From TrEMBL:
<dbReference type="InterPro" id="IPR008354">
    <property type="entry name" value="Glc-Fru_OxRdtase_bac"/>
</dbReference>
<dbReference type="Pfam" id="PF01408">
    <property type="entry name" value="GFO_IDH_MocA"/>
</dbReference>
<dbReference type="GO" id="GO:0000166">
    <property type="term" value="F:nucleotide binding"/>
</dbReference>
<feature type="domain" description="Gfo/Idh/MocA-like oxidoreductase N-terminal">
    <location>
        <begin position="4"/>
        <end position="123"/>
    </location>
</feature>
<dbReference type="InterPro" id="IPR036291">
    <property type="entry name" value="NAD(P)-bd_dom_sf"/>
</dbReference>
<dbReference type="InterPro" id="IPR000683">
    <property type="entry name" value="Gfo/Idh/MocA-like_OxRdtase_N"/>
</dbReference>
<protein>
    <submittedName>
        <fullName>Gfo/Idh/MocA family oxidoreductase</fullName>
    </submittedName>
</protein>
<dbReference type="InterPro" id="IPR050463">
    <property type="entry name" value="Gfo/Idh/MocA_oxidrdct_glycsds"/>
</dbReference>
<keyword id="KW-0560">Oxidoreductase</keyword>
<dbReference type="InterPro" id="IPR055170">
    <property type="entry name" value="GFO_IDH_MocA-like_dom"/>
</dbReference>
<feature type="domain" description="GFO/IDH/MocA-like oxidoreductase">
    <location>
        <begin position="132"/>
        <end position="259"/>
    </location>
</feature>
<dbReference type="GO" id="GO:0016491">
    <property type="term" value="F:oxidoreductase activity"/>
</dbReference>
<dbReference type="Pfam" id="PF22725">
    <property type="entry name" value="GFO_IDH_MocA_C3"/>
</dbReference>
Length: 346
């Protein structure tokens, strides 16, 4: 049995609640080292998981021979730390958004190719059972031609679960570069690309800060997207949905409508124009709230791709395409013009 040596760089909420527990639960993994600039936080995590403690990721990469690294850091560090890990000979699982620019994303992809290592971006929405089933139904022609969609991802904000609370890096433009759109919107952009099986070519974005004071990033955004084949729909990302989280998607087609995570009991409801209704109970979606799915499947998929030498579902290229949707929305919000995604370069 292959035993992969893993390091987790960044010991905040996503590392403590997703990456580390899921690595520990995977029999092919040994957590060798953890790193965080907040020494006390790194020490607590290291003691909990029997790992070596570091406060400098460069020292970790120099001293530890690890097979793979999870990058769970503020967004502005995703690219430099991922590239350093790839150059050190480790496979990389990077949190989203993968980078702060297309150029950074391309550099990450090039580093993975140059070193012959895997780069995966942690877009967990692709693994949600209702989303997987919806993709199957669309591909089978069950709802015919897709006409439109609406999707939303919103909650009360990172202050409720981030390691630093109201002082979180999520709220600081110099560290996050983007707010709710990077935290939540990029997940939905990736999901829609995956479910629809095509790329978006235009986006109009209304990207605002109208809910939280003293932050320097967006907290409320709505985008209109158009795909290659002419499917149009809306995507909302918000830190202003109180008190409950909304993580729903509705796909409107020629022969019916698919409602994903839009009902408290059924994770997928298929409503057909002939009057048929099929209710699916497929398990809970991942959530910060109690009762959410405990395994995101991201870690297991990443580990399997290394052990079996297969391409991960969300490669660096896939992560970059989803990032480009968000960059286009930002540009549209700034210019008040529709962005052509084929021309997004910043």
């Amino acid at each position: 049995m292959t035993q992969l040596k893993i390091a987790v760089i960044g010991c905040g909420s996503i590392a403590q609640n997703r990456h580390l527990p899921e690595y520990v639960a995977n029999e092919n993994v040994e957590v060798k080292a953890v790193c965080d600039i907040v020494e006390e936080r790194a020490r607590e995590v290291a003691l909990l998981h029997g790992a070596t403690l570091y406060t400098d990721y460069e020292e970790l990469l120099k001293k530890e021979e690890v097979d793979a690294v999870s990058v769970c850091l503020p967004n502005y560090l995703h690219a430099p730390v991922s590239i350093a890990a790839l150059n050190a000979g480790a496979h990389v699982l990077c949190e989203k958004p993968m980078a702060t620019s297309k150029e950074e994303a391309e550099e990450m992809i090039q580093a993975a190719e140059k070193n012959g290592k895997k780069l995966m971006i942690a877009h967990n929405q692709r693994f949600v059972p209702s989303h997987v089933k919806a993709k199957e139904l669309i591909e089978s022609g069950s709802i015919g031609k897709v006409y439109s969609f609406r999707t939303a991802f919103g909650h009360g904000g990172p202050e409720g679960w981030s390691a630093e609370g109201e002082n979180s890096w999520f709220f600081k433009k110099d560290q996050a570069f983007i707010g709710a759109m990077g935290d939540l919107g990029v997940h939905k952009a990736d999901l829609l690309r995956y479910i629809l099986g095509e790329e978006f070519v235009e986006v109009a974005g209304f990207v605002e800060n109208n809910a939280k004071k003293d932050i320097t990033v967006d907290d409320n955004a709505v985008c209109i997207l158009r795909s290659q084949s002419g499917v149009v729909g809306t995507m909302a990302a918000s830190w202003a949905y109180n008190p409950n989280e909304d993580n729903s998607t509705v796909i409107y087609g020629e022969k019916g409508t698919l409602r994903l995570e839009d009902d408290p009991e059924y994770s997928l409801i298929a409503q057909y124009t002939n009057g048929d209704i099929v209710n699916y109970q497929l398990g809970k979606i991942q959530s910060n709230e109690e009762g959410g799915q405990s395994n995101s499947h991201v870690i297991d998929h990443f580990v399997d791709s290394i052990v079996n030498d297969t391409e991960p579902l969300i490669t660096g290229e896939e992560g970059m395409k989803s990032l480009e949707v968000i960059l286009g929305a930002l540009r549209s919000g700034e210019t008040r013009q529709i962005s052509s995604l084929e021309k997004v370069t910043k």
